[in-house]
Amino acid sequence: MELIKKDETLDDLQLKGLYVIQKKEGFRFGVDAVLLANFCKIKNNTRVIDLCTGTGIIPFILAGKTKASEICGLEIQDDMVEMANRSSMYNKLVDRVKFIRGDIKDAKLLKSLNRFDALTVNPPYKLQKSGIINFKDKDAIARHEILCNLEDVIKASRMLLKDNGRMYMVHRPDRLVDILTLMRKYKIEPKRIKMVHPSYGKAPNIVLVEGQRDGGAFLKWDEPLYVHNPDGTYTEEIEKIYGRI
To answer: What pTM was computed for the model?
Structure first.
């Protein structure tokens, strides 16, 4: 079986010899996925699911950083699932990391997966009505709420998590009120928030949120994270997250 096709690249995650296959042209993972995987607190021998998994970048980082026993990626686009499973084969992780094709709005499917200890999600950020959209474009599907919206994501998270299970999400700060309101609606209590700033003196452009299914009311704010120094180089914390120092 040909694991890497002509229109794809094999990218080194610089993490325990792990690689991820991606399209040369099209959706490729960004810093938000890496930040989310680093924000998670995954206990040993637990089951984790990643929604809207795309190339599978978050499951592969978690496979390298944690001792989770099973990591499952759920994705609606067939070609993404097929590509992610080839990455799993390349990394010899098929017994631990798997990807399935499915719609997070499919309640029957979600119930068949059993419940998970932790859930991660890097959902489409942009409202469907924002900007001109080609509804068949894979980049648009990844970035706009075309096939699912924020409420679909949080409702699915409620169904997939065990009692007291943890949800970890990366999103945009302008959607924070929506995120917290919907989490409360589906009884996933917000427990921790971390703001990410592109550089010092600039407003945050990424927010990381942790919630707990049926958790008690108590919210903790983490120290903010800055991506770039004033000279444009990455900050020490980002270099550590990427494993460069």
So the answer is: 0.92
